[in-house]
């Protein structure tokens, strides 16, 4: 991690946000300039191989504003990997991570930084008036439940993408070099000294959100298989319970056949049992394959991100 040179770093993963970026920079400058930070701040915009002209806009903004630093990745690595790329470049004693769509109000940053000043390691935000689609709300509720059991997330803590982190915690987070980064899981591995502030959910300035159902499932699998072995344990428990159930059923069938020889063979129940056990076995093998596949890719040094270009010159 670079030596701290500014008071605050703001990391923003960028994807399909060409028309939003100028207003985002203006609003961030307007809010942060009122804080009177002794060493200033930097806004790190990480272009995650956006197919529009976001990178061109970022370069123009970096020319106009001295606090803007642009980073472009060679291909689309996903929001969390792009965030990790920005965290590697952050020089601030405090770091804020936020989205690029202006649904995260920059005016909330002051309260988040105040929480860090009070001694908290991380400050998350929680929507007071969430305006997402129903399927996103249901998915978020499931993700919250899964995070409590897989990551040991404290009850009531919403793992928002809008958060403030102390530089000491960031230094621990970026030590992770695996290809499938999940920033919130890394945070919970480092600290539980976490605070939460409420914010109002703003309307997206333009366009539509980039998270669809497929990306949400991929993020859940990343959380489940990168930071917990609970799915493997559940597969073991399921195998044990099915074996015990099968043994009881065998004993029941033997007794029934002995007491009532005229009972015909139950082909339907036999097929149903085979399909049930086969389904559990296939699910368990698939889960095991997911773990082995991620291990294989990590051992073969699959990159977490690859930087294509920067708007600044690296020091020799």
UniProtKB/TrEMBL annotation:
The chain crosses the membrane at residues 234-255, 267-292. It comes from the Bacteria. GO terms for molecular function: glycosyltransferase activity. InterPro entries: Glyco_trans_2-like (IPR001173), Glycosyltransferase_2 (IPR050256), Nucleotide-diphossugar_trans (IPR029044). CDD domains: DPM1_like_bac. Residues 9-139 form the Glycosyltransferase 2-like domain. Gene3D superfamilies: Spore Coat Polysaccharide Biosynthesis Protein SpsA, Chain A. Its EC number is 2.4.-.-. Pfam families: Glycos_transf_2. It is an enzyme of class 2 (transferase). Keywords: Cell membrane, Glycosyltransferase, Lipopolysaccharide biosynthesis, Membrane, Transferase, Transmembrane, Transmembrane helix. This is Glycosyltransferase family 2 protein. It comes from Acidovorax facilis.
């Amino acid at each position: 991690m670079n030596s701290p040179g500014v008071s605050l770093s703001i990391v923003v993963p960028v994807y399909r946000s060409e028309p939003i970026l100028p207003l985002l920079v203006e609003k961030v400058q307007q809010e942060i300039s009122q804080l009177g930070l002794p060493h200033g701040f930097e806004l790190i915009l990480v272009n995650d191989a956006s197919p529009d002209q976001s990178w061109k806009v970022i370069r123009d903004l970096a020319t106009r504003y001295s606090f803007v630093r642009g980073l472009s990745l060679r291909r689309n690595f996903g929001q969390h990997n792009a965030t990790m790329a920005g965290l590697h470049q952050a020089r601030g004693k405090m770091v804020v991570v936020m989205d690029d769509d202006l649904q995260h109000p920059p005016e909330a940053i002051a309260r988040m930084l105040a929480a860090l000043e009070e001694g908290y390691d991380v400050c998350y935000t929680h929507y007071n008036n969430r305006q997402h689609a129903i399927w996103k709300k249901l998915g978020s509720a499931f993700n919250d439940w899964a995070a409590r059991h897989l990551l040991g997330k404290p009850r009531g803590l919403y793992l928002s993408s809008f958060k403030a982190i102390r530089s000491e915690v960031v230094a621990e987070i970026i030590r992770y070099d695996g290809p499938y980064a999940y920033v919130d899981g890394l945070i919970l591995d480092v600290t539980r000294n976490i605070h939460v502030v409420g914010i109002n959910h703003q309307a997206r300035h333009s366009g539509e959100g980039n998270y669809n159902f497929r990306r949400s499932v991929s993020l859940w699998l990343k959380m489940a298989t990168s930071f917990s072995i609970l799915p493997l344990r559940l597969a073991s428990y399921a195998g044990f319970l099915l074996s015990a159930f099968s043994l009881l059923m065998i004993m029941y069938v033997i007794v029934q056949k002995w007491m009532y020889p005229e009972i015909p063979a139950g082909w339907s129940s036999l097929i149903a049992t085979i399909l049930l056990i086969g389904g559990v076995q296939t699910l368990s093998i698939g889960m095991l394959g997911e773990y082995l596949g991620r291990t294989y890719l990590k051992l073969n040094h699959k990159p977490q991100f690859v930087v294509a270009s920067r708007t600044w010159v690296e020091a020799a």
